[in-house]
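Hi support team,

I submitted a single chain yesterday and got back a structure, but I'm not sure I'm reading the token output correctly. Could someone confirm the output below corresponds to the sequence I sent? I've pasted both exactly as they appear in my results page.

Thanks,
R.
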Amino acid sequence: MSSKTHYKSEQTQVQMFLGEIGSQLAQANGFVQRQSKLGGNELVQTLMLGCLEDGMATLATFCQVASNLGIEISASGLHQRLNSEAVDL
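Hi R., thanks for writing in. Yes, this is the structure output for that exact sequence:
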């Protein structure tokens, strides 16, 4: 299995696992206060898949993973979202 196929398989599994739960938890703990391109579900997917791809992932790695998920975000934009609410999520 190629790494791209393996990554797609992991992405699908993470998306199925989280479903609406990630979004609901993000609103409940205060991470999501308004509609944005990077909601709780998307943040968790980005971080999980980034760590699966590279155990020493950087902000740039996570931004690339987000891009693969169809979410364009800069390293500084992602850094701003990594706050105490994101940690609680």
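A quick pointer for reading it: Helices lie at 3-29, 40-53, 59-68, 75-81, 84-88. Let us know if anything else looks off.

Best,
Support desk
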